[in-house]
Amino acid sequence: MSIDKLARSKILKLPTINAPEASEEMIRLNANESPRSLWENNESLDLNRYPSVRPTKLFQHMAKFYNVDPDNVLAIRGSTEGIDIIIRTFCEPTKDNIISSSPTFDMYQFFSEIHSVDPIDVPLKYDDNFQLEIDEVFDAINDRTKVIFITTPNNPTATLVPYDNIMKLVENQKNKSIIVVDEAYIEFSNSPSMINQINNFENLVIMRTLSKAFALAGARCGALIGSQRIIELLKKVVMPFTFSTVISQKIIQILSSNYREKTENHIQQTINERERVISTLNQLENVEKIWPSSANFFLVRFKDTTPIYNAFKENHILVRAFQDEPELKNCARITIGTHDENNILLEAIKHS
Ligand SMILES: Cc1ncc(COP(=O)(O)O)c(C=O)c1O
């Protein structure tokens, strides 16, 4: 049984766009480019030339970074682009649906609406610390459910979905739906990644990003990681030439420098700061609840937001405040900043 059954039939018939990789000594008269650079260029950046359709070297570096085979990786311009590619590969407009669990990252619903795919919501259990009730996901699935997004840790609740529950879903939906595990914040948690399961389940895609723990949000780079066949299908849909020459070179340069080891300290510092900020806030009168966090942010409910938000305004502090969603009434999602920034936040709340 192949994953092909789940892809849109039109996509299956599409060829994968390719172009020959050009090397220095070739006379490049094949792509209607300018033969020369017209700006002063001492960085050896051939911006007169198109970059690779899909930058093989960048893919290889991303594969090494995530410790998987290059055939199991599609480098993407952040997970945001990944969500779009997955929906376009598997969901037939006006027929299929996706499942996600609110409150969560709003791009799953956003891209499903854009592509005329029905978004089904299986809300997290507010009364149970925003846990995902996996049986409710099973109840919501129908024969047009093509993609199920599991976000762990979740945004904005910072909560985890247990590994065993995701495994249940992946096993149960074998040959039926694609399970996308969005692990954007996993480096801040003590939860194992699902990456080690990609060769056991063709219907599993892990979405990772350099934007959060690896401090490269401006580079717009992440990875879809899955079985060789699923990556081949996703490659048919990804836009050609998406990574500019400048950004691929920059990311390759960064990843070539033992980057993962260099970020370990930063990740641990963020976790330590998170625990310090949460334990300080938990002692304050105006704080009603802070949900346990496995991310680089936390969700807090205040008893009265007016003095708090006034203090934030006075101190030029931006947070993500929730107003409309009933279960997030008086809640804010606050990112962990530097030690000094966190102190300013704590002082502002204490004195409000
Ligand atoms: C759960 C989740 N997934 C994905 C993303 C997007 O990350 P990227 O910068 O890789 O597009 C975010 C961004 O906030 C997020 O919260």
From TrEMBL:
One GO MF term: histidinol-phosphate transaminase activity
Alphabetical list of SUPFAM superfamilies matching this protein: PLP-dependent transferases (SSF53383)
Pathway(s) served: Amino-acid biosynthesis
Cofactors named for this entry: pyridoxal 5'-phosphate
Domain Aminotransferase class I/classII large: 41-349
Any single biological process term in GO: L-histidine biosynthetic process
InterPro entries in alphabetical order: Aminotrans_II_pyridoxalP_BS, Aminotransferase_I/II_large, HisP_aminotrans, PyrdxlP-dep_Trfase, PyrdxlP-dep_Trfase_major, PyrdxlP-dep_Trfase_small
Keywords, in A-Z order: Amino-acid biosynthesis, Aminotransferase, Histidine biosynthesis, Pyridoxal phosphate, Transferase
Pfam families xref list: Aminotran_1_2
PROSITE patterns per record: AA_TRANSFER_CLASS_2 (PS00599)
NCBIfam families: hisC
Name the UniProt record assigns to this protein: Aminotransferase class I/classII large domain-containing protein
Organism, scientific name: marine metagenome
